[in-house]
Design brief:
Blueprint (H helix, E strand, L loop, with lengths): L15 H6 L4 E5 L2 E6 L3 H10 L2 E4 L5 E5 L3 H8 L12 E3 L2 E2 L5 E3 L2 E6 L2 E5 L5 H11 L5 E3 L3 E7 L3 H9 L11 E6 L2 E6 L8 E7 L4 H11 L6 E3 L3 H6 L35 H8 L5 E8 L11 E5 L2 E12 L4 E9 L8 E6 L2 E7 L6
Parallel strand pairs: 3-15
Antiparallel strand pairs: 1-2, 3-11, 4-9, 4-10, 5-8, 6-7, 8-9, 11-14, 12-13, 13-14, 16-19, 16-21, 17-18, 17-20, 18-19, 20-21
The structure holds (6S)-5,6,7,8-tetrahydrofolate (THG).
(6S)-5,6,7,8-tetrahydrofolate binds next to loops.
Length: 367
């Protein structure tokens, strides 16, 4: 393995020291910020996540803040999801598209108040696009990246652990809602959300000074719950069908190709910049779409992807994420598959760097 040379271009987080002390073994770079990817091993981390509770430094999920009387209008220009019914205290998974209908990001939109939103972004420089739109349309809105560092608490024991620190009111936070909680005299938004299917919360830590005290407080109350430092887990997120921008989709794909059509309301989201392009393309429907795939045989390696997918000697798609699933005893994968071969049960061939493997296309993810 190669190491990552530290530099000012790769930002550390308010939790980086704790993540190092907890024994992070590898990192990736996400929004130009460190994101740990392994602590014990990806498989051991996976079993622990599904059984206990983990604290994840997901500071790299940067917030693009919109502040001003046009904040809501700007937010609706960015996404084909109809946000009119959204109230303060709600979060919303919102595809962001450009003028061609191509995906620019797939963030969680957080409505703090009528005039203040956070766009909790995946790995692309979305703020540049948002600032460009705000200025080009002369909107009354300030666009910034505040010093907010999300900390996720994920796993089946996450609610019990959070209650110990923040009180019983934590239990009444509904999925994709948030409420305000005090910590060290600061108001923190805590949402029931996160990049796993194991249940949990995301704490939007506003201010680096309380980051380490919060980390330590969580580990103190969670000791007998077997709390550990963790991170988004490759195997679990494939099983759950949680997409990774830049891996499973890029600006070459529409939200329909990404299986995110249920988050698009092109009939009513009339302010969305990509709406006309999406409407034009919506006619015949997409010609390729994201699918769950199982790959036969022993555990696939962690090689570079994508891996081309063939059927009858023709290329019919690509696999963009893959891992051995201990629970399902097969390789689970996410791929973009052409319509001729996307029906459930279709047999295909995945060309991995160490040889061709038989594989099956499915309709539904595992979790
Ligand atoms: N939480 C927050 N910010 C984020 C992520 C997150 N920013 C980066 C990245 N993750 C954005 N991508 C996703 C992808 C999936 C989900 C959230 C963010 C997600 N999807 C659920 C699902 O598909 O089952 C629920 C979607 C829904 O029903 O609304 O949670 O994780 N703050």
């Amino acid at each position: 393995m190669v190491a990552l040379s530290p530099s000012c271009r790769i930002r550390r987080t308010p939790f980086s020291r704790a993540v190092e002390a907890a024994g992070a073994k590898a990192y990736t770079v996400y929004n130009r910020m460190l994101l740990p990817t392994v602590f014990d091993s990806i498989e051991a981390d996976y079993h622990h996540l599904k059984k206990h509770v983990q604290v994840w430094d997901v500071s790299c999920e940067r917030q693009v803040e919109l502040r001003g009387s046009d904040a809501g209008r700007l937010m609706q220009m960015l996404t084909p999801r109809d946000l009119r019914g959204m109230l303060p205290g709600q979060c919303c998974y919102a595809p962001i598209v450009d003028e061609t209908g191509g995906m620019l990001n797939d963030p969680v939109a957080v409505k703090l108040s009528r005039d203040r939103w956070w766009i909790s972004i995946a790995d692309s420089d979305l703020m540049l696009w948002v600032k460009g739109i705000a200025n080009g349309y002369r909107l009354d809105v300030l666009v910034s990246e505040p010093a907010v560092a999300p900390l996720a608490v994920q796993g089946p024991k996450s609610e019990d652990m959070m209650v110990r620190l923040f009180g019983d009111r934590v239990r009444s936070i509904r999925f994709f809602r948030f409420d305000w909680f005090q910590f060290h005299g600061r108001d923190l938004a805590i949402a029931r959300s996160g990049y796993s299917k194991q249940g949990g919360f995301e704490i939007y830590v506003d201010g680096a000074d309380i980051a380490m005290p919060l980390w330590d407080a969580l580990f103190a109350v969670g000791e007998d719950l077997n709390v550990r430092a963790g991170c988004p887990n490759l195997i679990e997120r494939i099983e759950g069908g949680l997409l990774s921008y830049g891996n499973d989709m890029t600006n070459e794909n529409t939200p329909y190709e990404c299986g995110l059509g249920r988050f698009c309301n092109t009939d009513t989201a009339i302010e969305c910049i990509g709406r006309d392009a999406l409407l034009r393309g919506a006619g015949q429907g997409p010609v390729q779409q994201i699918r769950p795939i199982t790959i036969d045989g022993a555990a696939v390696g962690a090689h570079d992807r994508p891996w081309p997918v063939f059927a009858g000697g023709k290329r019919v798609g690509q696999v963009t994420s893959a891992a051995w699933s201990p629970d399902f005893r097969t390789n689970v994968a996410i791929g973009m598959i052409r319509s001729s071969h996307w029906d459930t049960g279709t047999r295909v061939e995945v060309h991995t760097p160490d040889g061709a493997r038989a594989a099956t296309v499915h309709n539904n993810f595992w979790l």
